[in-house]
Amino acid sequence: MKSKFLNINKIVLSVAVLALVGCTNLDEKVIDEVLGSEIADPEAALAAAYSQLGEGTFVDHGSVFALQEYSTDEALLPTRGSDWGDGGKWRAMHEFSWDANSDVVKTTWNQLNFGITKSLTAISSASKSGGANKALFLAEAKGLLAYYTYTTIDLFGQAPYRDPDNINAPIQIRKAETTIDDLIKEVEGLIPNLADIKTQNTHAGRFTKQAAYALLADMYLNRAVLKNKTAGDFNFLEQAVNGGGTDMDKVIEYSNLLINNPNFSLESNYFHNFDINNDTSKEMIFTIVQKKIANSDKGSDNDLAYMSMERIQKPSPDNRGTNASCITPEFYYSWDGNHNDPRFQRTYQYEDGTWFRNDGTDVSVPSTSKVEGTGKPWFHFNRGLQVGQQYGPKILSNGNFDLTADGRIKVYKLFTEKNTTLAADFTPELNFDNPSEAVFTQAQINRGVRNFKFEFDPGYGNNGTSGMDVPLYRLGTIYMMRAEAYFRNGNVGAALADVNRLRTSRTNDALKGNAPGVALASLDANTLLKESGFELYWEMYRRKALIRFKKFDQAGTAKPASQPYRRIFPIPQATIDASKDFTQNSGY
């Protein structure tokens, strides 16, 4: 039987989702009170569990992204004039002043708990079904549960669980130090019942065998940290859970299964992995499908592109950025001597050959590129890290782009929207008046290099939906994991080979002669961490890497030196107040 679930991104899930959310409002309740109403259709229950990946959880800047990136050198959301104050909740993530009442911490915890609850409901529903796809759906639901739980114990040190086959079962609290081994065993046990990617109508948006391999490599890479996250040192060479070599041997083993799989290959255009049409990328192993669902905005978000773009930067007459997120000087200057790396920046070329150089030499670009659904002109900004004076289109009083007599989009030097005499000139230095607080005056709002890694989708509003699938695991991630495992195993030559494979497989745009990245001659721990940042910046990977490399606690721009307990976030106070099952993490 061909399952209607096999095209999950086209199913409207509102009934299933509302049923679960209505019974599991984690602002007021925890899952010991109710697992969630049973859903007879296992496909709808499983689709709801998938949908939660994109219900802000991993696609909005204010949830998992905020905890994994705003707490590091890769991303910062300062207060800019009168914008983005919000009681200091965004700055707190970088200033390390969050606590158990933090809105961002609470939101992330709740969303991950929704994912756990929906996965448990999907497991229960699949277990009770008798369909031909029972074993497959059950394995996928358990894989999603493992992914949500792994993310939760990584961020919070503990996660809730309850037997999905017993609605009266007591809640269990899974602690990171013991749960990591259990999760590894559980995911390894799922592999026989999971589909290989591109079989049984699966794709990167489904939890396949290959998604399991990627998750296992990730869990083994971080196993030593999860077993004692506040430790001064980590034993990365501990014997693996099943005794088959060390943790790093298992990272290499599972990485090999992906790197040697002919379904995957590295993209020469690095930024294609983050294009609106990135579902055609050959790197995608496990993603959040964001293609437009008919009559629904569920599971889709444009934040990864929108948040870093200035308000005056307009991809279409109907869209603009919001002048929020940037990167720190520390991360920007880590690229010194490497600006020709194809992952640093890419210049856009229009179909008629026009380049948008963004350097003051541009006069106009074609208006032949159109926004789907509106038919209005689409102005394509360059990709990667954007520094210096910015250029782009202007909007006339009639709401349209200013065009030349022959219908091309005029390109202007841009000035900030709220201070029209202040040039939109992005500077690497942030220079806060109070070095410990990420606060700018209105005259300082253009400070900070911006990240245009992800393509802005102008089809659905400023920070609305996006057609870009969000990669959770892609082939570049796996190469970087394997390089680190080789390095920690003492095989520096193999680690260097993987790093150089990533560097030289990427090529620049034609304006730079399609030149490939340059190979390194040597590799040490500091260089390896820099290379991790070059390949994986803004992909919700940095916090884990900084902890493994013992850099997370160090002082930085608007960040004080911090204590090891900050490597784990607090359980929200509302949860502690509502349930006797949870205990607060040490330090909070």
TrEMBL record:
Belongs to the SusD family. It comes from Chryseobacterium polytrichastri. Residues 41-221 form the SusD-like N-terminal domain. SUPFAM superfamilies: TPR-like (SSF48452). Residues 282-588 form the RagB/SusD domain. It is found in: Cell outer membrane. GO terms for cellular component: cell outer membrane. It holds the Pfam family SusD_RagB. The lineage of its organism: Bacteria, Pseudomonadati, Bacteroidota, Flavobacteriia, Flavobacteriales. Residues 1-19 form the signal peptide. Keywords: Cell outer membrane, Membrane, Signal. This is Starch-binding associating with outer membrane.
